[in-house]
Amino acid sequence: MDNAILKIMRERRSIRKYKKEQITEEQLQAILEAGTYAPTGMGAQSPLILAVQEPEVISLLSRLNAAVMGTDSDPFYGAPTVLVVLADRNRPTYVEDGSLVIGNMLNAAHSVGVDSCWIHRAREVFEGDEGKRLLEQWGIPGHYAGIGHCVLGYRDCEYPAAKPRKDKYIIRV
């Protein structure tokens, strides 16, 4: 059986080098909408999506993320859009809820011609003093935890080939 959604899931790859060109507003809105339709525990919709396209804010988030990683390289690979997903840590499924939001956005990005990559370390960034100040500045309550970053743009590299699926990925019992 084959359909468009399964095809997108098979074809999507993480991209680690982006052009400076910004994605379109129409593409961004479609990707954000897909995030809002991710399943969440008991339908609580606890995650928040921060859409960041301001270069200075992206640069700050990149610096904070790189510091967690212990490097000064750009962990966002030059992507012109960064979507930060946060979720209410008071919900027992907050990590899963936020992860599903990111997964939906990664697949939606591919479906509208935008390249993407999931970037970790959002939890550590927003647990730090500077990250906490940013959340306060943006009016986000302190009980929200960073789940991840979804970077978006148009690739400036060859499209990677899929790695073979591992043996015994699926075990029937």
Automatic annotation (TrEMBL):
The keyword RNA-binding does not apply. Keywords: Oxidoreductase. InterPro entries: Nitroreductase, Nitroreductase-like. Gene3D superfamilies: NADH Oxidase (3.40.109.10). Residues 10-68, 74-154 form the Nitroreductase domain. One of its GO terms (molecular function) is oxidoreductase activity. The keyword Oxidoreductase applies. Belongs to the nitroreductase family. This is Nitroreductase. It comes from Wansuia hejianensis. The lineage of its organism: Bacteria, Bacillati, Bacillota, Clostridia, Lachnospirales.
